[in-house]
Amino acid sequence: MSRPYRIPVVAALLEQDGKVLVCQRKAGARHELKWEFPGGKVEAGESPRVALARELREELGIDAAIGRELTRYEVQYPKGVSILLIFLTVKSFRGELKPLEFEQIAWEDRANLLGYDFLDGDLPFVRQLANGVF
Question: Which fold has domain 6-130?
Answer without folding.
Answer: Nucleoside Triphosphate Pyrophosphohydrolase (3.90.79)
